[in-house]
């Protein structure tokens, strides 16, 4: 089979790999949809790729892609019948931990006490290929009502947005400011609107702001065209500020604005990876009773809850995807995605 490999420095290869065979406790997924995630760009862009960023790699090239969704086509020995079966429609939680510590046993394998043993698509073979091998316990059933593309989105970007909104305790009477309308931020806009909240969407791309309106944003703000972003949010909230904010951009200035724009007793959540932020702890946090939250993806239970919410409310997550690609067009796909001005892409390996 062919698999996409990030070579780093904005280069990638399409290499030949043997079709995988499941070992004890493992399954093989035939990948029907493999989403492109913004966090992949750091491995795509960085000279030397994931290894240069300090990840402990397996020997040899690693297949990229950590938004897997497909159908189980092979089951290894020792897999309980209720856990996985041939023909099962499944998403995959793209981490492997020890499986038994307090975090792994509650579905938070990325928080494993012993450290993450595998990040699929980074340190272990991911989903930018026809087949993917993984532990059966990392599978999350895909509701019949949902497409494989929606399942791929939930497997990271949309699931990450869901996890952050749950951490914030979003309610229908809240106003939330969402900084960055890439795949994660746009997912947060769509989900927050579906929960009944009022959404203020921020991005420097007019195209992404237009999409935010399509996905339910009530107010849009372009920081490039707005002298005082925090004041603009206060003006849109009767002078009080947003109840909640979520930064999906990872830009230091946006993170600071996300904290400053919430009202007294408000909550701000950082979900975008990388870079830093400078805050006046007394004035930005303490003296306004502001809660600052970090949110890193989601648990297997949260992934299942997100899928069920989307299915029950018939949310059009497929609309996130603006481009569909075959594996042989990987170079073109990542060059476009690297521009970060367009929507989300997905590989359809089958």
Describe the structure.
InterPro entries: ADH-like_C (IPR013149), ADH-like_N (IPR013154), ADH_Zn_CS (IPR002328), ER (IPR020843), GroES-like_sf (IPR011032), NAD(P)-bd_dom_sf (IPR036291), Zn_alcohol_dh (IPR050129). With 350 residues, this protein is of the alpha/beta class. The protein has 2 domains: 205 residues, Quinone Oxidoreductase, Chain A, domain 1 (Alpha-Beta Complex), CATH 3.90.180; 134 residues, Rossmann fold, CATH 3.40.50.720. Helices cover 27% and strands 25% of the residues. Helix 6 links the parallel strand 11 and strand 12. Helix 4 packs across helix 5 and helix 4 crosses helix 10. The mean pLDDT is 95.
Topology:
Elements (H helix, E strand, L loop, with lengths): L1 E7 L2 E6 L9 E10 L4 H6 L3 H4 L15 E8 L13 E4 L2 E2 L21 E2 L11 E5 L3 E3 L6 H7 L2 H12 L6 E5 L3 H12 L3 E5 L3 H9 L4 E3 L7 H7 L6 E6 L4 H9 L1 E9 L10 H5 L5 E4 L5 H13 L8 E5 L4 H9 L5 E4 L3
Parallel strand pairs: 10-11, 10-13, 11-12, 13-14, 14-15, 16-17
Antiparallel strand pairs: 1-2, 3-4, 3-8, 3-17, 4-5, 5-9, 6-7
Helix pairs in contact: 4-5, 4-10
GO molecular function: oxidoreductase activity, acting on the CH-OH group of donors, NAD or NADP as acceptor; zinc ion binding
Protein name: Iditol 2-dehydrogenase
InterPro entries: ADH-like_C, ADH-like_N, ADH_Zn_CS, ER, GroES-like_sf, NAD(P)-bd_dom_sf, Zn_alcohol_dh
């Amino acid at each position: 089979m062919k698999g996409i490999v990030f070579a780093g420095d904005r280069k990638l290869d399409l290499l030949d790999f043997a079709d995988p065979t499941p070992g004890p406790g493992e399954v093989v997924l035939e990948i029907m949809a493999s989403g492109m995630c913004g966090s992949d760009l750091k491995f795509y862009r960085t000279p030397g790729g994931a290894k240069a960023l300090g990840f402990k790699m397996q020997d040899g090239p690693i297949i990229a892609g950590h938004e897997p969704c497909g159908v189980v086509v092979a089951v290894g020995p020792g897999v309980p019948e209720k856990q996985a079966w041939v023909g099962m429609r499944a998403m995959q939680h793209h981490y492997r931990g020890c499986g038994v510590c307090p975090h792994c046993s509650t579905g938070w394998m990325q928080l494993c006490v012993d450290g993450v043993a595998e990040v699929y698509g980074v340190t272990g073979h991911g989903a930018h290929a026809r087949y993917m091998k993984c532990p059966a316990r990392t599978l999350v059933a895909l509701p019949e009502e949902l497409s494989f593309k929606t399942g791929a989105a939930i497997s990271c970007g949309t699931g990450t947005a869901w996890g952050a909104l749950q951490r914030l305790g979003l309610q229908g009477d809240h106003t939330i400011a969402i900084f960055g309308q890439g795949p994660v931020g746009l997912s947060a806009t769509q989900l927050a609107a579906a929960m009944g909240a009022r959404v203020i969407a921020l991005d420097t791309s007019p195209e992404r702001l237009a999409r935010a309106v399509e996905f339910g944003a009530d107010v849009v703000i372009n920081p490039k065209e707005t002298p005082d972003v925090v004041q603009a949010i206060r003006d849109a909230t009767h002078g009080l500020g947003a109840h909640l904010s979520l930064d999906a951009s990872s830009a230091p200035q946006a993170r600071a604005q996300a904290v400053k724009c919430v009202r007294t007793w408000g909550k701000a959540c950082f979900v975008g990876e990388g870079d830093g932020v400078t805050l006046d702890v007394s004035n930005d946090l303490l003296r306004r009773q502001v809660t600052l939250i970090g949110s890193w993806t989601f648990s297997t239970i949260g992934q299942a809850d997100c899928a069920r919410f989307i299915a029950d409310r018939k949310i059009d997550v497929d609309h996130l995807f603006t481009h569909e690609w075959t594996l042989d067009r990987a170079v073109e796909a990542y060059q476009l995605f690297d521009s970060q001005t367009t929507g989300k892409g997905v590989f359809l390996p089958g």
